[in-house]
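Thread amino acids onto this structure.
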């Protein structure tokens, strides 16, 4: 599988951010989705149980990170878990903490810097037990994580863990913080410690498994997968899946689907097509069932699995199945957009472009043109609130549309589409030549063919000169 295809795979959210809530025996109740805020003319996220002021602060932070809609949602869900966790911890810090109401108000208002400073002041000025010091340090780390200051947060997560190493939440959060800083071997050791802590808790309770063990296995499996340890990753994912099945609790159905998708990605990357297909299909069935009760929370996951199946079938040259699942993916995104979730317009445009490619290569040219043209229109609409957000995708769709016009002998329209695509790809290649030069060469070669067929020899020679400078002999 090509690397850019692998990077396009939808991966369900991991036990992400820098740790989970203290009560790891309950699934997180909230969810996040992306939308367009018309008043601000920008993409935004909203989370079901985050207050208005804190949610505004989250969007302010995300806006400064130049993320796509999907990336914003991926960042928002672990952020919301950490936000809920901090609120819970503030309630438990101390019955005698006079500043507690002020701290709670600061957090609810998104004033995380001020809350962290107040917690640090209490940590420095009060006589605390070891356990209390650890909890204060952990709370400070949370305020830093909520500002996406992960490197600063790591020091506090480590101090909390070192002081109270048998507290599962501290061990897991420390491991997650290490992973975010790409300190993989240290993260692996911390995950193993968290796993051992979770298993000791299971033994004390006299049970056979716990969600804490499962969530640690998922993170450990993902670390192993990213490090090329496929067999180890599969073993951890499989055990996590067994645990969720053993719990016999429908609230963990989404977590089971997440693990199945991870397995599908693992098999997909290894080109084990049948195993990947089965894992994706099982995850899809679970997400579809969940979406019946909460469409806003789970329909994006349905579409993500369908996208993975599209890539799988296209790679295996199973065109009819690829068309079927791409149409289904398109229908889901169309539904989300029609229901007011305009932030999914880029994904809708992507699905239309994919459909166009499948129709084009199958000789269904009228349907291909319709899909390409609509995808271009949607990409252009995104530019109203995110000018650079879909530039790469828009250039690709214009390139495809130009080739279709050429194939149907509409050379004037072909030259216009390909010229615009070449300008966009030239700008992208100037900024990231290793990533985008191949795309630029593709469009220039297509444009040169059109100019030659039109008899525009001067323009065709100009393209040949550009290609030669890029190291390509026309």
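Threaded sequence (474 positions):
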């Amino acid at each position: 599988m090509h690397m850019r295809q692998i990077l396009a795979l939808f991966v369900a959210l991991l036990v992400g951010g820098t740790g989970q809530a203290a009560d790891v025996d309950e699934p997180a109740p909230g969810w996040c989705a992306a939308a367009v805020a018309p008043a601000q003319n920008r993409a935004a996220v909203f989370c079901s149980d985050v207050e208005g002021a804190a949610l505004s602060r989250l969007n302010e932070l995300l806006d400064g990170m130049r993320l796509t809609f999907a990336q914003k949602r991926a960042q928002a869900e672990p952020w919301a878990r950490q936000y809920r966790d901090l609120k819970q911890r503030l309630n438990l810090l101390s019955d005698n903490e006079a500043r507690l109401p002020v701290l709670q108000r600061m957090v609810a208002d998104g004033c995380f810097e001020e809350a962290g400073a107040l917690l640090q002041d209490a940590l420095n000025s009060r006589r605390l037990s070891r356990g209390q010091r650890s909890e204060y340090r952990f709370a400070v780390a949370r305020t830093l994580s909520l500002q996406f200051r992960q490197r600063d947060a790591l020091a506090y997560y480590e101090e909390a863990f070192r002081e109270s190493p048998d507290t599962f939440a501290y061990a897991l959060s420390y491991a997650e913080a290490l992973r975010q800083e790409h300190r993989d071997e240290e993260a692996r050791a911390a995950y193993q410690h968290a796993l051992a802590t979770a298993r000791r808790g299971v033994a004390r309770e006299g049970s056979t498994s716990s969600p804490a063990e499962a969530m640690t296995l998922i993170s450990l499996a993902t670390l192993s997968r990213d490090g090329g340890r496929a067999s180890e990753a599969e073993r951890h994912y499989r055990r996590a899946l067994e645990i969720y099945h053993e719990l016999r609790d429908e609230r963990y159905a989404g977590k089971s689907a997440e693990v199945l998708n991870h397995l599908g990605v693992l098999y997909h990357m290894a080109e084990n097509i049948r195993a990947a297909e089965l894992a994706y299909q099982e995850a899809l069935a679970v997400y579809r069932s969940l979406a019946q009760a909460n469409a806003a929370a789970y329909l994006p996951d349905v579409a993500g699995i369908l996208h993975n199946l599209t890539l799988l079938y296209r790679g295996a040259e199973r065109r009819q199945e690829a068309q079927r699942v791409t149409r289904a993916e398109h229908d889901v995104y169309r539904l989300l957009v029609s229901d007011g979730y305009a932030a999914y317009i880029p994904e809708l445009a992507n699905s239309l472009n994919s459909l166009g490619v499948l129709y084009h290569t199958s000789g269904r040219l009228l349907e291909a043109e319709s899909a390409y043209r609509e995808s271009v229109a949607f990409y252009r609409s995104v530019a109203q609130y995110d000018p650079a957000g879909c530039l790469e995708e828009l250039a690709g769709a214009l390139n495809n549309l130009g080739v279709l016009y050429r194939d149907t002998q509409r050379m004037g329209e072909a030259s216009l589409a390909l010229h615009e695509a070449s300008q966009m790809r030239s700008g992208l290649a100037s900024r990231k030549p290793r990533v985008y030069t191949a795309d630029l060469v593709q469009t220039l070669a297509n444009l040169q063919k059109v100019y030659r067929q039109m008899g525009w020899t001067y323009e065709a020679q100009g393209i040949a000169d550009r290609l030669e400078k890029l190291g390509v002999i026309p």
